[in-house]
Design brief:
Elements: E1 7-11, H1 16-26, E2 33-37, E3 43-47, E4 55-59, H2 67-81, E5 86-91, H3 110-121, E6 125-129, E7 144-147, H4 150-159, E8 165-169, H5 175-185, E9 188-198, E10 201-208, E11 215-223, H6 227-238, E12 243-251, H7 257-263, E13 268-272, E14 284-287, H8 290-301
């Protein structure tokens, strides 16, 4: 009988907090690593225990700065050179995913470049959650397990028992996601149409659909500067929405995001711990993805189907 390769968990420094929760949920511990930092800022991560013949899960979200991505690439390379049997990059948040196409002349496609870099480093599998665009899975030439924050958010929204629930898409690109939520929650959907003339700046926004006396839940894959959701929330509030909540898988929260949320008519914002919060805000609630990822890792390790882990 063939002996199954042992499994080991490791964490990049940006996601140690999350890796510890995932490993604990799985029933394991995070392995020991160190990072040598040179005086010019160059880094060299290394494993302080053997990974020979092991299936190595390296947990690291690649949010800014770019060193988080570089550290993950170096850890993958180190594991392969240390004779790991397989290396799985667990990236709850995949940075550069917004650059999934050429939307202007002479620009990069950052998501494809990141996929190529991970492949070149020697990764055997990718686990991630709520990619900015589903087709990014096709940029990789290795298996991709694409999980969805809706597996956490849908049950939580149901538990709120909102009387007149409606799901809102913050832009036209989010209609597929909002429609999936509306289907599982058996409620109406409204759409926000926005005109954006440059990145992170929304010039105009309109609501398609009736929001009067509705308990609105805006759904998105990430919240960056919070400009779109706060403008949408204000407009829906002005049009008579009874309450407004937001769910967003990735709490990027850059620039004036926290201040905007605090001043907005949004009552609550639900995010996951794919990215750690920089500041405290009473409106922001965090749901952990540790159990979801631990369950999928267990199923992948045991060659079991993971399709029933998806709500999308």
């Amino acid at each position: 009988m063939k002996i199954k390769a042992p499994i080991k968990f490791f964490a990049g420094r940006a996601s140690t907090y999350l890796a510890e929760k995932i490993a604990k949920s799985y029933g394991s511990e995070v392995g020991k690593t160190s990072v040598l930092e040179f005086s010019d800022g160059e880094i060299q991560p290394f494993f302080e225990e053997s990974v020979r013949g092991c299936i190595v899960f390296i947990i690291q979200s690649t949010y800014p700065p770019a060193e988080n991505l570089m550290e993950l690439l170096l850890m993958v390379d180190a594991a392969k050179r240390a004779s790991a049997f397989q290396v799985v990059a667990v990236m709850p948040y995949l940075g550069y995913a917004r650059q999934d196409r050429k939307d202007k002349p002479r620009c990069s496609i950052g998501a494809k470049l990141v996929a190529d870099l991970l492949t070149a480093a020697g990764v055997d599998r990718i686990m991630t959650m709520d990619l900015h665009a589903d087709q990014i899975q096709g940029f990789f030439n290795v298996p991709v397990d694409h999980l969805y924050g809706s597996a956490l958010f849908v049950p939580y929204i149901k538990s709120l028992n909102l009387e007149n629930l409606a799901v809102a898409a913050p832009d036209m690109g989010g209609t597929k996601r909002a429609n999936a939520y509306a289907r599982f929650l058996n409620c109406e959907m409204v759409i926000c149409y926005k005109l954006r003339k440059k990145a992170n700046v929304v010039e105009e926004i309109r609501v398609i659909g009736d929001v009067r006396d509705k308990d609105i839940v805006i759904v998105d894959d990430m919240i960056d500067t919070a400009g779109t959701i706060c403008l949408a929330a204000k407009l829906m509030h002005d049009e008579g929405a009874r309450s407004i909540r937001v769910v967003g898988s990735h709490a990027v929260f850059s620039g004036p995001a926290y201040e905007r949320i605090e001043k907005s008519p949004i009552s609550e914002v639900y995010v996951t711990d794919s990215i750690p919060l920089k500041n405290h805000n009473d409106k922001i609630k965090v749901l952990s993805i540790a159990d979801l990822f631990a369950d999928v890792i267990h199923k992948v390790y045991k060659y079991k189907s993971i399709s029933n882990s998806f709500i999308a």
